[in-house]
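To close the chapter, one final illustration. This time we ask the reader to focus less on the individual chains and more on the assembly as a whole: which components sit near each other, and how the overall shape emerges from the parts.
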Amino acid sequence: MEASFYHAKTRYPGIFGWLFTTDHKRIGLLYLISTLSFFAVGVSLGLTMRLELIRSGMHIISAQAYNAIFTIHGVVMVFLFIIPGIPASLGNFIMPLQIGARDVAFPKINILSWWLFITGGAVVITSLFTGGGPLDTGWTFYIPYSVRTGTNVSLAVFGVFLIGLSSTLTGMNFLTTIFRLRAPGMTWKRMTLFTWAIYATSWIQLLATPVLAITLLLIIIERFFGVGFFDPAKGGDPILFEHMFWIYSHPAVYIMIVPAMGAVTDIIPVFSRKNIFGYTAIAASSLAIAFVGYLVWGHHMFTSGMSDTARIIFSFLTFLVAVPSGVKVYSWIASLYKGSITLGAPLLYTLGFIFLFSIGGLTGLIQGALATNLHVHGTYFIVAHFHYVIFGGAVMGFFAGLHYWYPKMFGKMYEEHLAKLAWVFLFIGFNMLYFSMFVLGWEGMPRRYYDYLPRFNGPNLVSTIGSWVLTMGLIIMFYNLIHSLYSGANAGDNPWGAASLEWQTSSPPPTENFKDIPVVTKGPYDFK
Amino acid sequence: MNETAHIEHRDYVGAKLGMWLFLFTEILLFGGMFLVYSVYRAVNTADFHEAGMEMNVTIGAVNTLILLTSSLTMALSISAIKNNAKMRSVLFQAVTIVLGIAFLVNKYFEWADHIRHGFYPDSPKLLAMSHGKILFFGLYYVMTGIHALHVVIGISIIGFVLILTLRDSVSGTDYVKLENTGLFWHIVDVIWIYLFPLFYLIL
Amino acid sequence: MEQKQEERVHVPTQVFVIVWIALLCLTGLTIKAAQMKMGEWSMVANIAIASVKASLVLWFFMHLKYEKRLFKLLIFVPIITVSIIIVLTFFDIWYR
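The assembled structure is written out below.
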């Protein structure tokens, strides 16, 4: 019996065998630990924000501090947690196994990506404590404020640039891997839908991130040299900055959600013992979302002063992009229909994902319509929408994937009842925290404000209490996952009876993944 | 299982595919700047033409010829190594580097001249001019600057690969590193092929 | 997965030199087109000529002619992406 990859003889001893590894499984775990650590930082900042907003007129921090906190909350959650998120951790660990490869195409670039990520994160953290202090521009860095503010914008933005480079290289690596390293018999139509999702996501990472890179560089150049690209006094157009920023940042949200959709698409057939409904439609929809996702960025700018023509076109395209997501939701429901359902934790989190993502997605349509957008732009309605899709969607999907692939990654089983208990707290807390925000936003409460009118007191209190309930759920869930590393039951190679390739090797896998590269003769959800 | 022993088989096509995918990111990076250029030119057409008169077409044309020739020498260095003509390949790589340096030297003098005449970002002389002129020069410095940075990176990589060629790490049977270096260098040339008319040929 | 020995195409030096000469000629042509002072049509002509030059570099110097079909298809991806981005942005710029 081959030793697992944890016990491999590495080139460098001890911890350096991890820090300088070229094994995609170790790199996936490095990302998992680092992104989840940043998630904890982001959650703490979020809790502080909610505490500040518990009651109108009551303050525990200054307005300046609040501005910095919501900015860093956004930067950490977006760039340091959820964008690397599933692709870098689960994608790295699981995708090569699912295609029957021994590793990714460029293992050294893989670990370089992680170091770029960590360095970028360190630069961002450093920027909080040096120079003019933590940046207060919002994670969107809008000009002119990002050029005029004395806070440490250039350093923070450079850190994000490095993280973007990490993301770009990972996209390149995964694309080459999927093109070149599939096992014999692993046709495109026999790949798992998680791998299809990683494939589509990698295209977005490759092609969108460079636009962020140039936008960030232009902020730094503007701050140092006053070139004037976005300064009206010099002929520049601040709206052009918004265009460039959102040309990346809208596709970025599909980097966040598409892998989560991929994870749940793998989970559903296994827990309903039925082949997935609409394999081709789901694979095509991942590609469609990636493509159409490039065409809709203007919907973040409806109130900015864009032309009416542009607004109408972007609104129309925004409604289009909802269609492939709808295709997925219907396919998932059809996959569950008349299946032999086991409501294990992965499926429970998946169902939570489908419900919360649907609410987020539908409210996205409300925002995509021009007339209603004018009413809700810049309010808590938007904040609620994106937390429903990113947190209720992508992160919940991430948690589903974590539980599903936990036995494969660690060779142990988590405790099922605790996982379900955590889910209850998460689900209730989440809806208390964020549904209140739909109400607040609709009633007119603006976002990014450190105080509010007394008439908004009720829902804000509910929201803050919800944040505590949600945090309780996170604590129970992570306690379960960490504690089970030591005291969990040993998991076999294939505790779920799944059919995809990662389950046909040991848990955890050996360093080279498979004793012999498998020859694939059937589909990934073929349970016969 | 020894971790260091895995993934030693070579995938020639995969290595090239990875490089092409990386080049796509460069196209998108410069694409963002071409977006800024096209927007401001569309809005300030007359001023851009006026600003374009300040540019020295000769230096621009000479630099274009330098880069085009360096692409030729780069391609020939790869042909040479494929034929196992190691020193010929090294020679062509060296010539490519020299041409790249010549490009940068020209650039240096060009920039120095403009700066001496008061045309630089946020200069009092420039700020007194029309918006179109301010933006034109801003775009000129940023776009040719980022391009020049890529020339520097390219020269460094060619230098590194040249040493590998001397050491036979790059050889007639394994030359993908040289090929990929060539691909990078050619993209730098392609970017300049577009920069040249956009900045030097608005007359 | 064992890689079969890839077909290593040897492009004759002559081909490269001819392409190089073509590029030099096109450079001369583009300068002439600019000097004809056709206003913004000069720019259209120049971008078109630049695209021909870029295509020559891609096709011959960068070996795209001899690569697998996948590479030839993929090159359109960034080109189309940049084009879409510029077109959609201009729906704002032109109609303000």
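The domain at 21-504 of chain A is CATH 1.20.210.10 (Cytochrome C Oxidase; Chain A). Residues 63-98 of chain A form the longest helix (36 residues). With these observations in hand, you are ready for the problems at the end of the chapter.
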